[in-house]
């Protein structure tokens, strides 16, 4: 009966049409919003994009740290400001055309074009003249720190040293994308066939509510070490469906904890195919500080102090997540985050009264926005929303309405500040405090709060110009103190715990790391694929519980 359920699920996902099973099938969460690396912000999209488009560097599968990608080597000037990248002689597009330094410059300038709408454009502002180019105050390429010395050599000049610049070069936004289809088809360039790609995999097709299918790019410079021929990413929204597909062998990997039923989590976490690890990610709340009453910092602090975060992780998330009393997670070398606001209901009530709302009287009803559906990761967002609603009502006497939005609409509304209070999350792009703290500078497209603090901006800028590591950390700490204890445009709730499901007897090349990065071309298959009947080694979930999930 379990196999029958999984077969039905597969048919539903494929539109009732049997197709060739991929060599590796990954349950990746929600439907991608885009596969354009310049404009994506979601982690699930980035996993796919990093298989299609590569940058000058790429993440090491074991550590997540940057290693040579399209650039085989580079030199850095003594002052840390000038990088000279040497592009591999065997780096070619999947169509056979050489990848050049001019392709890199085109790709980066595209992100710096405001018409592209790239939230990550601010990450390029470390390059000399890039911010002025973006703001159209200077379009003179001679004043921009990008120069193709020849077809295979790119020189990048930074405004000041940025110790994480090589990490940035591994991000999807810095990936090299093909000029010809972009100029020919505009926003529909991903529909071009053949689609030139710079990464280890080509795009076979992207079928909405079905799958994204990738095939090995045989012209990729490291194709000899790319073992998996065909990969499918399934956009499965229901944890019940996801677990059944995995249990019966219809899928090989579940990337996220949110894609398994929370009611079975305690049992699932004990299985040998469950891999749990800490990584740099924070679940938090944003305030739109341009809308009353959230313009008042006392209101924001009151709401923060009224949240029992331990109750959230014990009752809802349940995978060992750590309560967040600051925004930057623990574990970044050389950085000790400052403590923000804890749980203090009495102080919360005092602050709300000082703001003019004693016991919540006169406090306007407001909306809490979250991306949600009835199932999947969004179900967790809904549960947290309901819990917050109850806490704020019981502790402060205020009423909140839940505003549930489809994912794409949710992020668009957040970007244009069409919300009052909103759920959010941030996963590190690299192992440095800056990846968390610079998203709240005034010019960041990822800020999405309306909050602007000149002192905060100044501290982040000073930290990133500083070569002394201790002084740099102290400046970041002072900035984070403003963010989480003084101004409070956000409320950190908890730090993520990574949970992957895959059988190490069948799959290798996946390494838990602090950035939760798992390059596709590092993954290998071991031996023959086990049948659904052979997966009973993982306990009763494969029988009684799976039948329960199938509604039997």
Cα-atom radius of gyration: 24 Å
Shape: globular
Question: Quick check: average pLDDT?
Answer: 90
Classify the helix fraction into a percent range: 25-40%
Classify the secondary structure makeup into a structural class: alpha+beta
CATH architecture of the largest domain: Roll
The CATH topology name of the largest domain reads Dipeptide-binding Protein, domain 3
* Total of DSSP H or I helical runs spanning 4+ residues: 17
Strand content: 15-25%
From the N-terminal CA to the C-terminal CA, the straight-line distance is 8 Å
| Main sheet: strands, sense, barrel | 6 strands, mixed
Low-confidence region ranges: 1-16, 528-552
Superfamily at the CATH H level of the largest domain? Answer: Dipeptide-binding Protein, Domain 3
Number of domains: 3
Q: Which oligomerization state do the chains in this entry correspond to?
A: single chain
Strand arrangement in the largest pleated sheet: 13-17-12-16-14-15
Give the strand tally. 19
CATH class identity of the largest domain = Alpha Beta
Provide a descriptive summary of the structure in words:
- This protein is an alpha+beta fold.
- The protein has three domains: 2-29 and 200-273 and 503-549, Periplasmic binding protein-like II (D-Maltodextrin-Binding Protein, domain 2); 43-186, Dipeptide-binding Protein, Domain 1 (Dipeptide-binding Protein, domain 1, Alpha-Beta Complex), CATH 3.90.76.10; 278-497, Dipeptide-binding Protein, domain 3 (Roll), CATH 3.10.105.
- It is built from 17 helices and 19 strands.
- It has helices at 2-13, 43-52, 101-111, 130-134, 165-168, 179-185, 239-247, 265-268, 297-305, 309-317, 345-354, 377-396, 407-415, 434-437, 454-465, 469-487, 544-549, and strands at residues 24-27, 57-59, 66-68, 71-76, 82-87, 146-150, 153-157, 201-207, 211-216, 230-234, 253-254, 274-287, 322-323, 366-371, 400-405, 421-427, 490-501, 507-508, 524-525.
- It has a six-stranded mixed sheet with strand order 13-17-12-16-14-15. It has a five-stranded mixed sheet with strand order 8-9-10-1-11, sandwiched between helices.
- Helix 15 runs antiparallel to helix 16.
- The longest helix has 20 residues, at 377-396.
- The model is unreliable at 1-16 and 528-552 (pLDDT under 50).
